[in-house]
Amino acid sequence: MAQLRIALAQTNPAVGDLAANADKLVEWTRRAADRGAHLVVFTEMFLTGYPVEDLVLRSSFVEASIAAVEDVARRLADEGLGDLPVVVGYVDRANLAPRLGQPKGAPLDAAALLHRGRVVTKTAKHHLPNYGVFDEYRYFVRGDRLPIFRLHGVDVAIAVCEDLWQEGGPVAVVAEAGAGLLVVPNASPYERDKDDVRFSLVTRRAQEAGCALAYVNQVGGQDELVFDGDSVVVSASGELIARAARFSEELLVTDLELPEARFGGLGTFQVDAGDGTVITVERLELSASPVEPYEPEPPAIAPHLDDTAEVYAALVLAVRDYVAKNGFRSVILGLSGGIDSALTATIASDAIGPERVHAVLMPSRYSSDHSLGDAQELVARQGINARVAPIADIVNAFEKEIELSGLAAENLQARVRGMILMGLSNQEGHLVLTTGNKSELATGYSTLYGDSAGGFAPIKDVLKTLVWELARWRNAQAGTSSDFLYGFATPPIPENSIEKEPSAELRPDQRDTDSLPEYDILDRLLDDYVEKDMGSAELVAAGHDPALVARVIRLVDLAEYKRRQYPPGPKITPKNFGRDRRLPITNRWRETAP
After folding, report:
1. Residue 101 confidence (pLDDT)
2. Of the given ranges (20-29, 61-70, 361-370, 548-557), which has the lowest mean pLDDT?
3. Is residue 211 among the annotated active site residues?
4. One of 24, 122, 125, 575 is an active-site residue; which one?
5. Which residue, among 226, 237, 252, 161, has the nearest Cα to 204 in the 3D structure?
6. pLDDT digits (tens, 9 = 90+) for 105-134
7. Helix (H) / strand (E) containing 213
8. Distance separating alpha carbons of residues 488 and 471, to the nearest angstrom
């Protein structure tokens, strides 16, 4: 057996900022060298950030990526770090003739091995995901090479992200060709409960490959996606050795005892990948002799987050990174005293600090006294910036010029509030946070150019019942320490905001249940219709009331045009309203009654 100390750089790159990402690579490589690492592994497409979407179709961007990986290899050597091998993801280009249906320029989701000032070898993702949020057939061509490099007497193979999720391909080839360690750079987005699925997959692939597996995942927010880290190292039998924390950057340094290389020959040969393709294995050598025996460090295993904590951490990270990466200094939102705006304000305070959160209290003629009082109490509890802007006179001015009644008059109030928030955003440079939840978005219970106006929607993918759960969980954390929570000594959300019956307060004595079913009933139905794509007959067979099924399906289907105009917000479910769920607005298909 041979010893190897590996460092997994669970990092938060910025899409398109190749210079800053290269600086971070050098910095984290130096940290790994200071820890005595023998190998550093960065995440999928780290140098470019991920996902870069249509940027890969620009030759200028791909050329900059290729130049960046070569430049950073030389820079590592110039700064005395060249002897420490580095695996890093970037965008490369395949040497393929243009053809119809192939992405322009034949880009590759690639990973390079940097050592002693040069790119020693490179590989590219073999399996291209084309489901959910992934459109990789649009962007990349398939890789067909598997490098296995000898490092201190251990054969180390490289595969990229989706190559773990599909049968055959690089994992099958590793099992055939033999390696002591498989390293896998990833950019795997967060979804609820995905860590359990992911860990089960990693253990199974390690067993199939017959070697230890080091899985390093990106962390951070990128538009609607949140990356949760959760990097892991497992043994050849699938036993957990080390695990990084979730939702934060971390250098996970782990000592491994691995079998020495069994094969003496170097060079290239082809192996049947078991998926109808052939992969070329490239064997090369960086160092043949094992390191001198040393005292290993105790492995780090981060504590587990429960379901509610992980969702809340994902929302906080998404807001923090959207604000920071888009250059905003502060956020602004309408604070009504209700649970949705209360939770949104609290997430913002945790993400960027209450001193950078601005709230506008905009009571109307129908606002209850307790709503204004609950909003003011939240302001006092959290110390956020607040101002009061009553809207009654503004609404009256509109109504003097144009006669509106019923729903149109109700929506006017919401649109006045949206206009005030957007005006303050323009004037003062704040990012407007919208406060609508997934239950409202699903059923169209929102006002275009009113409460839907804004730049980012923190709870867009959060059903109403989960909003209450998150609020209660957050209040229970007051006075405790956490890396992703602001240190409020007392519960940040007023109890009355959580317990009172929800209302838009756009007409006298209005309640959400005037227009919608009870949320616990509605959310179960929405989960089956939206997340699971059940038709009406399936929904009734699953136990939902037939009349309610027909009513809710109609509400959801008719609101598609509204959702298209809603701001982006963090994805936490397998099917968010965004890239996951793509339905035509102009659409005459209707589910028939069973």
Report:
1. 82
2. 361-370
3. no
4. 125
5. 237
6. 899 999 999 999 999 999 999 988 888 788
7. strand 212-217
8. 14
Which residues contact residue 124 at a Cβ distance below 8 angstroms, ignoring those fewer than 6 apart? 92, 94, 108, 109, 110, 111, 140, 142, 143, 144, 145, 160
Catalytically annotated residue among 24, 122, 136, 161? 161
DSSP assignment string, 119-143? EEEEEE-SS---STT--HHHH----
501 annotated active-site: no
Give the best-scoring range by mean pLDDT among 171-180, 243-252, 440-449. Answer: 243-252
How far from 357 is each of 30, 431, 436, 455, 579, CA to CA, in Å? 36, 10, 18, 14, 29
Structure letter (DSSP) for residue 229: B
Sheet holding 431-432, edge to edge: 385-388, 357-361, 331-334, 431-432
Start-to-end CA distance of the chain, whole Å, equals 64
Q: Give percent of the chain above pLDDT 90.
A: 76
Model pTM?
0.94
What angle do helix axes 339-352 and 369-382 make, rounded to 10 degrees? 10
Q: What is the DSSP letter of 528?
A: I
519 is in an annotated binding site: no
Count the neighbouring beta carbons within 10 Å of the beta carbon of residue 333: 24
Q: Judge contact between 395 and 403, C-beta under 8 A.
A: no
Task: Return the SS3 of 358.
Answer: strand
Per-residue pLDDT tens digits for 453-511: 999 999 999 999 999 999 999 999 998 878 889 999 999 999 999 998 776 655 566 67
Q: How far apart are CA 243 and CA 26, in angstroms?
A: 23
Is 340 annotated as belonging to a binding site? yes
Given 44, 162, 191, 410, which residue is catalytic? Answer: 44
Secondary structure letter of residue 433 according to DSSP: B
